[in-house]
């Protein structure tokens, strides 16, 4: 193989390596720039007008003139708003929670489902604070099946604050006395999405499931789904980089990139200069010996 052709192949390989390294370093730098949020107790104590402790609840929302509380025991309590302390009533006003009710019409995976509300509008719900295994991972199918068995066709309540960049509602799902975000973690069917969620209660649920070898924790080396997605993304990008890196195809002409002289395929310098590339008949200036 000529020196010129070797240089072309080597330069193409270096381009691919450079692209791949750039793709690998960008997500890592981004992850380092976004530290995990601190862990906080999501269950807040509530008190009556006299300051007496009533219960602890992880969220509260106004339901007419009453306040709905979901307690540590899994009960949904309805308490007249006027019975709460002034501090608690101010807290309710300062921390509004959006509530959505409807019937589950599909379960996409272990952390995503579809809901049909009373107005026949469909909503895609992403369970806040958890990340279930992908379909290509171990327990991906089991995670989806467990959630599907519990909620499909049922009426659920979704408490949420916002949507994610994909338009999905980021919510906490409640079915009777069950908090399904917590249940998926407790059964080892999802990971606590620690990088985006600082709920200490969810963090403890994962630790307990891990200690008990529940669900995905039975694997010797379970892979977090976000790492699996990143690995798959990198693999696709590497393949794309390889496919789009276009090594220069041999032509009848060779350009000495140092001198700018063009040689044709009959010339002794064709493909043999220390620096050069294949070119077209109108590139550079013609060689005095072969006429380019």
Automatic annotation (TrEMBL):
- Give yes or no: UniProt keyword Transmembrane: no
Please, which domain of life does this record's source organism belong to?
Answer: Bacteria
SUPFAM superfamilies noted in UniProt: Staphylococcal nuclease
- Mind telling me which Pfam families this protein's record contains? SNase
Q: Which InterPro entries match?
A: SNase_OB-fold_sf, Staphylococal_nuclease_OB-fold, Thermonucl_AS
Q: In what residue span(s) does the TNase-like domain sit?
A: 98-219
Provide the GO MF annotations for this entry. Answer: endonuclease activity; hydrolase activity; nucleic acid binding
Residues of the signal sequence? 1-31
Q: Which UniProt keywords apply?
A: Endonuclease, Hydrolase, Nuclease, Signal
Which cellular component appears as one GO term in the record?
A: cytoplasm
What PANTHER family does the database record attribute to this sequence? Answer: EBNA2 BINDING PROTEIN P100, SERINE_THREONINE-PROTEIN KINASE 31
Q: What is this protein called?
A: TNase-like domain-containing protein
Source taxonomy: Bacteria, Pseudomonadati, Planctomycetota, Planctomycetia, Pirellulales
């Amino acid at each position: 193989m000529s020196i010129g052709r070797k240089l072309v192949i080597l330069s193409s390989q270096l381009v691919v390596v450079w692209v791949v390294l750039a793709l690998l370093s960008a997500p890592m730098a981004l992850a380092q720039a976004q530290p995990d949020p601190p862990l906080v107790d999501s269950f807040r104590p509530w008190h009556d007008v006299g300051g007496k402790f009533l219960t602890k609840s992880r969220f509260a929302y106004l339901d007419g003139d009453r306040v709905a509380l979901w307690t540590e025991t899994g009960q949904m309590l309805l308490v007249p708003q006027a019975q709460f302390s002034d501090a608690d009533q101010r807290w309710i006003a300062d921390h509004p929670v959006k509530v959505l009710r409807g019937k589950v019409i599909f379960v996409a995976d272990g952390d995503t489902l579809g809901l049909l509300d009373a107005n026949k509008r469909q909503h895609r719900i992403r369970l806040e604070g958890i990340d279930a295994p992908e379909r290509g991972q171990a327990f991906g199918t089991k995670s989806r099946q467990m959630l599907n068995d519990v909620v499909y066709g049922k009426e659920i309540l979704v408490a949420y604050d916002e949507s994610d960049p994909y338009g999905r509602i980021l919510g906490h799902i409640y079915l009777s006395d069950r908090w399904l975000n917590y249940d998926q973690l407790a059964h080892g069917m999802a990971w606590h999405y620690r990088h985006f969620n600082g709920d200490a209660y969810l963090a403890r649920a994962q630790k307990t499931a891990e200690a008990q070898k529940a669900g995905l924790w039975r694997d010797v080396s379970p892979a977090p789904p976000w790492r699996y997605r990143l690995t798959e993304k990198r693999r696709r990008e590497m393949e794309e980089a390889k496919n789009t890196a276009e090594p220069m195809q041999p032509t009848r002409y060779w350009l000495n990139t140092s001198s700018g002289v063009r040689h044709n395929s009959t010339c002794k310098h064709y493909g043999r200069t220390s620096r050069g590339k294949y070119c077209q008949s109108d590139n550079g200036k013609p060689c005095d010996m072969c006429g380019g």
